[in-house]
Structure formats: C-alpha cells, structure tokens
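Q: I'm writing a short methods note and want an example of a predicted protein-small molecule complex. Could you take the sequence and the SMILES for nicotinamide-adenine-dinucleotide and return the bound structure as tokens? Please keep the output block clean; save any remarks for afterwards.
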Amino acid sequence: MEIRQLRENQASALQDKAGARRNDQQSQSLGLAIVTGAGSGIGAAIALQLAQDGYALGIIDLREAAAKEVAAVIQGRGGLASASAADVSNSIELGQAIDACVRSMGPLEVMVNNAGVLDGYFDVHDMDETIWRRVIDVNLTSVFIGSKKALEHMLPQSRGAIINMASVAGLNGTGGGAAYIAAKHGVVGITRQMAVRYGAMGIRVNSVCPGAIPTALREHSQAILGPDVPDMSHRGVAVNDDQVRALVPMGKRGDVSDIAQAVSFLASPAASYIQGHALVVDGGWRAK
Ligand SMILES: NC(=O)c1ccc[n+]([C@@H]2O[C@H](COP(=O)([O-])OP(=O)(O)OC[C@H]3O[C@@H](n4cnc5c(N)ncnc54)[C@H](O)[C@@H]3O)[C@@H](O)[C@H]2O)c1
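A: Understood, no commentary inside the block.
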C-alpha cells in the first residue's frame, strides 16, 4: 500500500524517459548512498529522493521483500539500486551488506542510519529488560555499527556524509517510552561526538529529528518486537487528529517527503558547513 502511494507520487517522474536517462548518468556521478530501514516509510522516501538526486542506492532492511520493492522502483526509473536483507543491530550482517554495496556501486558518499522501532511506550517501572535491550540495539547500537562500517570506507577517501535518524523523542521526554527516548537521545549524542571527532577529516555527521509522520512504524515495531509489547495503535502521542492539533503548532502531521527533503539537503553540498546538527522537522512541536 505504502509503496503504491510512493509510486503514484512519483508517477510523472517514472514516465519521463529522458529524466530516467539523466538519473542513470547522475547515479554514476554522485556515487553511493546507503539507507537502512529503507523498505518502508521514511527510509523508502529517503532512498527514492537520493536516487532522484543522482546517487546509486543501497537499500537495506530486515524485510527483504520490502527492500527489493523499493530497489525495483529506483531501477524502474533508470537508477542504480541493490536490495539487501540485514538486521542493523547485527554487526556481521550489516557490515557484509554495506561492503557488498560499496563493492558493486561505491564509493560510499552518504550513509543514512534510519532503521528503528518503537518500544511499546513502556515506562521504566513496567519495561522488560529484554525489550529495553532490543530497542536500544535496533535504534542506537545500529547507528554505531552502521557508522563504524561507513567510516571504514569514508575515512580513507576523506569524504562522506553520515545522517542519523533521531526523533523529537531524541530531544524531548515525550514521543516514546523510556527505551525509545533514551535511544533517540543517544542518536543525537553519538552524532555530535562523531561530528566533533571526524569534522576535520572531511566527514560530516548530522541527525534529523522528525515529529509525527504517518508510516507503519507502530505495526512494524509490533511485528519485530513480538507479543511482549502491547498493541501500539492507540498508545503514545499523536494517535488521532485531535491529539495532533493539540501537540503540533501547524496542526497537522508531516509527510515522509518532508523528512526525505531534509536528508537530501544534509547530504548535499548546500549543507557543506553544517556539522553535528539535529535538524528538527516537526511542524513546530519541539518549539513549544
Ligand atoms: N514515523 C514517525 O513519526 C517518526 C518520528 C520520528 C522518528 N522516526 C524514525 O524514523 C525511522 C523510520 O521509521 P518509519 O516511521 O519510516 O517506520 P517504518 O516502520 O515505516 O520503517 C522502518 C523500517 O526499518 C526496518 N527495520 C526495523 N528494524 C530493523 C532492523 N533491526 N534491521 C533492519 N531494518 C529494520 C523496518 O522493517 C521498516 O522497513 C525510525 O528510526 C523511526 O524511529 C519516525
């Protein structure tokens, strides 16, 4: 369903054969961008946007069929893309997937550590330790693993941009349960540490903090974490229009394309002096 919407949104571009040829040429000139969690939602929109910008795309997701579907959309437009199944919290799986992308489509210019799961909105007193560890692994340790492997390729070339998906929950004490909020604060933190450490080596590192963006995050998180987390469809914030209006000064949810545009900007030369930034894209939620 989601992929069909993305396809429809980009239908005019799909039909533009001249544009597709142009895209193909650009793919080869801008190098490789890898996006984790790119089989769905925000990650899929980022992958499609970066392909349109002219990158070859490495699509990585736990759900292989979803990754393949997004790669096929890019290939259908004449772009270069490959799909790999990997769990971002597993350094061997993610490392092998990144290495394979670099071998076939490198050099690696952009690494987007985007994959994540919600935590069931548990508070500390009622959160199971196993859920805590899994949520920290998928949302935060994955950024360490993905960045470490990306740096292996970027440091020797003294060039690259790493963009990490945080959240308003990485800056505020709301928007998730204890583990999700801790993990997303950690994403903002590791982004700043890497920005300080690698800035002089030609690597730019930034994070993006989305607000309420309709995706299948709740459903996917539920499926990935299993029966130990409660039904998340009505838990947390911004679960209905009244809540969104009360929370977000602009009175509405954002769109996956709002986040994709922000990532596209941070990856581009237009952001060449932006380093260690947490770019909030939330309709004003954080401003309150
Ligand atoms: N949707 C929002 O409102 C919102 C707000 C703030 C931040 N975010 C963040 O944006 C990112 C993308 O979320 P989304 O809303 O697009 O959700 P989504 O569920 O649509 O996409 C997340 C993707 O990550 C994949 N994934 C999950 N765990 C994985 C793992 N261990 N290894 C590999 N892939 C894995 C899923 O299969 C899915 O395709 C997440 O980090 C999320 O925390 C989302």
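A: Remarks, as requested: The radius of gyration is 18 Å. The chain has one domain: 2-13+36-287.
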